[in-house]
TrEMBL record, chain A:
This is Biotin-dependent carboxyltransferase family protein. It holds the Pfam family CT_A_B. Signal peptide: none annotated. It comes from Lysinibacillus louembei. Residues 24-304 form the Carboxyltransferase domain. Keywords: ATP-binding, Hydrolase, Nucleotide-binding.
Length: 311, 237
């Protein structure tokens, strides 16, 4: 009972909701970059936090060696199932011997192939997410390669006449406004840098992976006082400014601690939108308070809860 | 940014699902011990919705699930968490830290295991043996883990052997490499690029993902580096 990787795509890894409770030991959280699309894929299969395949920019070709049910969410990779368009954002029954082919993402950067019961790989420290640098989790701690045989469990066909409209949950665009809260060192930046940060459109460089996104602009962000900071906690969405003055947004595979000044923090609810940007995308930032950020997040979670009840 | 102050301890949000309790603004034993005490307290008495606590040199970061935190109608989520943390801090519970472990880390210094030992020695006008002696006679304290699983930020390097980082970082440093970078010393748990001066290597694995806690060293441990021979390395493995 397996899935065979015929073509791995550009960068495909197994991810779940993330590896928590070990950050104090330096173990990063990892997990799906776009938690919202990942989570909707799980809900569509009426399960939670199972390992799914996260695909990036160019999708894989997979052969299913057993009957199962899948749900594809996230960016549109124009999936074909046995050479016919395969619907996304709904459960799809797949017969043994079927081939799923994904192309290049039209818009958005990351897709999720959720499989009923999840990919059957061992959990490590409470998660099946791939942690590349430590070579743990996922499929042998690495990205998928041609010829890999991924264990799954069989599942019968089931009612599949419902679907989700992604636009109710997430915006796929390469020109976005991202909401932030002030970073712990926001006040340390010059007035000019603060104003520039909130008025310019940054460009996402090609140096953008699961660990972090480098942003580019015409100006270097500077602090009024150049002083070395003592390393402390950083997290998914932390925007730090290294000596170059060009900001870096930390993503799902970021380190647990860092020593660069933190100018801002992307709100939790907008991380999925950020995760779906393609290189060269334009990003503007706008501030909200912590309380507003939490209210936005709670509304997003309530929407998911409604979906869960409906399915 | 809302900053709430409790004598010398301040609270500030890291983001909308994490907050920092800041105990000081410089690296010191006193701050480190306060953090150790409070870390134990919060792990024993977490609030509903708390996910994990991550101590560092001068602060503890508390991650929480916004959907699970219980709040009073008169307070925001952030305020209710701070109120709870303040009540724990006011009780000021002390834990017995004398039980902290003293761990020996075996190191083969110099040669192929420590390609920069000769440079560090000549930089300070000392012999290689003196560098080894000064590096292995100190007792270090693990202030925090970060950068990579099992990577310990240590306090206590003998200032007379502090050495600037390499001008051109190495592309790969083998797992277990023991280095000096400025005022810091430590061990790389994995093969990684890096700019520290590598003076030795340990056969001890620092990241043990098959167990919990998953690291050989933990914040608060005291450690010593113990010089061993290449033959003893082979016996260790």
């Amino acid at each position: 009972m397996t899935i065979t990787v015929i073509k791995p795509g550009l960068f495909s890894t197994l991810q779940d909701g993330g590896r928590y409770a070990s950050q104090q030991y330096g173990v990063i959280v990892s997990g799906a970059m776009d938690r919202l699309s990942y989570h909707i894929g799980q809900l569509l299969l009426q399960q939670e936090n199972k390992a799914a395949i996260e695909i990036t920019m160019i999708g894989p070709t997979l052969r299913f060696d057993v009957d199962t049910v899948i749900a594809i969410t996230g960016a549109n990779f124009l999936p074909l199932l046995n050479d016919k368009p395969c619907p996304m954002w709904r459960p799809v029954s797949v017969k043994a011997g079927s081939v799923l082919q994904c192309a290049t993402a039209t818009i958005g950067a990351r897709g999720y192939i959720a499989v009923k019961h999840g990919l059957q790989v061992p959990g490590i420290l409470g998660s099946r997410s791939t942690y590349l640098r430590a070579k743990i989790g996922g499929f042998h701690g690495r990205a998928l390669q041609k010829g890999d045989v991924l264990p799954i469990r069989a599942s019968d066909a089931r009612r599949t006449n419902y679907f989700v409209k992604p636009e109710h949950f997430i915006e796929f665009s390469n020109d976005v406004t991202i909401r932030i809260t002030e970073g712990t060192e926001w006040q340390a930046f010059t007035k000019e840098s603060q104003e520039f940060f909130l008025s310019t459109a940054f460009q996402l460089s090609t140096d953008a992976d699961r660990m972090g996104y480098r942003l580019q602009s015409d100006m270097c962000l500077t602090r009024s006082l150049q002083k070395d900071l003592i390393s402390e906690a950083v997290t998914f969405g932390t925007i730090q400014v290294p000596p170059s003055g060009q900001p870096i947004v930390l993503m799902a595979d970021c380190q647990t601690t860092g020593g660069y000044p933190k100018i801002a923090q992307v709100i939790q609810a907008d991380l999925p939108k950020l995760a779906q940007l393609q290189p060269l995308a334009k990003i503007r930032f706008t501030t909200v308070s912590i309380e507003e950020a939490q209210n936005i997040y709670m509304r997003q979670q309530q929407q998911l809860a409604l979906l869960k009840n409906f399915l | 940014m809302e900053v709430i102050i409790l004598t010398h301890i301040t609270f500030k949000p890291l983001n909308d699902c994490a907050l920092l309790i800041v105990f000081g603004d410089s690296i010191s034993i006193t701050t480190h011990q306060e953090i150790q005490h409070f870390h134990k307290t919060i792990e024993e008495q977490p609030f509903q919705g708390m996910i994990e606590a991550v101590p560092s040199y001068t602060s503890i970061c508390i991650y929480y699930d916004v959907m699970q935190v219980v709040r009073k109608p008169s307070q925001t989520i952030y305020e209710s968490i701070v109120t709870y943390l303040q009540s724990l801090l006011t009780k000021n519970e002390q834990h017995d830290l004398s039980t902290r472990r003293l761990i020996d880390i075996p190191v083969v210094y110099g040669g192929e295991y420590g390609p920069d030992l000769a440079f560090v020695a000549s930089y300070h006008g000392l012999s290689e043996e003196e560098i080894i002696e000064r590096h292995s006679s100190q007792q270090y304290i693990v202030y925090m883990l970060g950068f990579a699983p099992g990577f310990a930020f240590l306090g206590g390097l003998d200032e007379t052997i502090a050495t600037p980082r390499k001008e051109v970082p190495r592309l790969t440093i083998p797992a277990g490499s023991v280095g000096i970078g400025g005022q810091q010393t430590g061990v790389y748990p994995f093969e990684t690029p890096g700019g520290w001066q590598i003076i030795g290597r340990t056969p001890q694995r620092l990241f043990l993902p098959e167990q919990y806690p998953p690291t050989y060293l933990q914040a608060g441990d005291r450690i010593r580096f113990r010089a061993i021979s290449a033959q003893q390395w082979r016996d260790f493995i």
